[in-house]
Amino acid sequence: MRSVLIAYDHSEPSRRSFDWVLSHEVLLPQDAITIATVVNEDLLAVEGMYGWETATMGTAEWMADDYYKRVNELEQLANNALNKLVLTLETKNIKARPKLLKGDAAEALVHYAEQEKFDMVIVGCRGLGFLKRKFMGSVSEHLVHNLNCPVLVVKERNDTKQD
Question: Which residues form the UspA domain (predicted)?
Answer without folding.
Answer: 2-155
